[in-house]
Write a structure and sequence with these properties.
InterPro entries: ATPase_AAA_core (IPR003959), P-loop_NTPase (IPR027417), Rad50/SbcC_AAA (IPR038729), RecF-like (IPR014555). Pfam families: AAA_21, AAA_23. This is Recombinase RecF. The protein has helices spanning about 35-50, 50-60, 60-65, 165-175, 210-220, 225-235, 270-280, 305-315, 325-335; strands spanning about 1-10, 15-20, 25-30, 80-85, 90-95, 110-115, 120-125, 130-135, 140-145, 180, 195, 235-245, 245-255, 260, 290, 320, 340-345, 350-355. The chain has an eight-stranded antiparallel β-sheet, covered by helices on one side. Among the domains are: about 35-175, no CATH class; about 185-280, no CATH class. With about 350 residues, the protein is of the alpha+beta class.
Length: about 350
């Protein structure tokens, strides 16, 4: 479980520290830094999966990701993200590529990277292009023998993981973190149309495989919990999946209407709730599940059913919820969530614990 997070110099997050609980809810006004906090968390997941550079470039690249305010004269232009769990701690420092920048001026450059175990022993250390790791059965540290891509974390470039089991375990845990922010619900969205699918124990980040994920829950997951969640949100309704030769069609059936509703007929908010329910009820829980603005497009009456799903998921995963909804936040805090409120001071985000 993550016990401490610190982010420095990422957009408005000049120096933000949070000590999350099993369930943490983050609130704040528009422009306070909630989306920046979410993006900073995704940097850690991307570092473990080897997608750090493309993810950052899609958001404008390193120059736009760096803190835009005043820097101290003795301060390096670095984004630093530090996370401490119950079994390890990890630190990642990103900077600009050295001149001449060439065609890839937006790429991040990994300047430093550190991984320690719970006792503070060094498991991995990287400075620039070189890295050292603690090898199983060896004394001291060993230089990592492979060349490292400068724009990606060493954590994701690990080869021969059997030699570095503790490093591999930390990388595997972070790579399994799940992030949900935007579910496509436009008319052309795969969610709204029949789709070819396979057994899907984890819903994709954009929800495109919703029908297959629901079918998987029906066959070997918490199907009864899904029924309760749908009925709680839409009284008298039941979610079904029809399948024919590997093609899945999502249907919502109501007791008071003879024919079922196909996904293409459902509102954006209904589809979004169904995606959230399916993600939260996954048969393969993630170590960390992060929901950014799950209340978007949802009717206020769905705050309580959604909160119940989140509280239930927090028994299996550590959960972060970043939300505009006071009603959702209130339900979660009453259920035992740790609360943080974000605000801007002098252009920098400040995180204050809610008591």
């Amino acid at each position: 479980m993550i016990r401490h997070l610190r982010i420095r110099n990422y957009r408005s997050l000049r120096n933000v520290a949070i000590e999350p609980a099993g369930l943490t809810v983050v609130t704040g006004g528009n422009g306070a830094g909630k989306s920046n906090l979410y993006r900073a968390l995704t940097l850690l997941g991307a570092a473990a999966r080897g997608t750090l550079a493309p993810g950052m470039v899609e958001e404008g690249g390193m120059p736009s990701a760096l803190w835009a305010g005043e820097w101290r004269k003795d301060e390096r232009s670095r984004i630093i993200v530090e996370v401490e769990s119950t079994t390890w701690s990890y630190s990642l420092a990103l900077g600009l590529p050295p001149p001449p920048e060439g065609a890839f001026a937006l790429d991040p450059r990994v300047k430093e990277e550190y991984l320690h175990d719970a006792a503070g022993n060094s498991l991995m250390e990287r400075k620039g292009p070189s890295a050292w790791m603690r090898v199983r059965g060896a004394r001291g540290r060993t230089a990592y023998p492979f060349a490292l891509d400068p724009q990606e974390a060493a954590l994701a470039q690990l080869r021969e993981p059997h030699l570095y089991p503790e490093v591999a375990a930390a990388q595997g845990e972070m790579a399994r973190w799940r992030f949900y922010h935007h579910f496509r619900t436009d008319a052309a969205s795969p969610i709204r149309n029949p789709q070819v699918g396979t057994r899907t124990t984890v819903l994709a980040a954009d929800g495109h495989d919703l029908a297959a994920a629901v079918a998987t829950l029906r066959e070997g997951g918490p199907s009864a919990a899904l029924d309760r969640a749908v009925d709680r949100a839409f009284p008298g309704a039941r979610l079904e999946v029809e399948h024919d030769r590997g093609e899945f069609t999502l249907l919502l059936k109501r007791h008071d209407i003879e024919r079922p509703f196909a996904a293409r007929e459902l509102s954006d908010g209904t589809l979004r709730f169904l995606c959230l329910a399916t993600a939260l009820l996954s048969a393969r829980p993630s170590p960390l599940l992060i929901l950014n603005e799950p209340d978007q497009s949802l009717h206020p009456d769905l705050a309580a059913p959604l909160a119940e799903l989140i509280l239930d998921a927090a028994a299996r995963s550590q959960v972060w919820v970043i939300t505009h909804s006071e009603a959702l936040a209130r339900h979660l805090v009453r259920g035992g969530a740790a609360g943080y409120d974000l605000r801007l001071e002098g252009g920098a985000t400040v995180a204050e614990a809610v008591t």
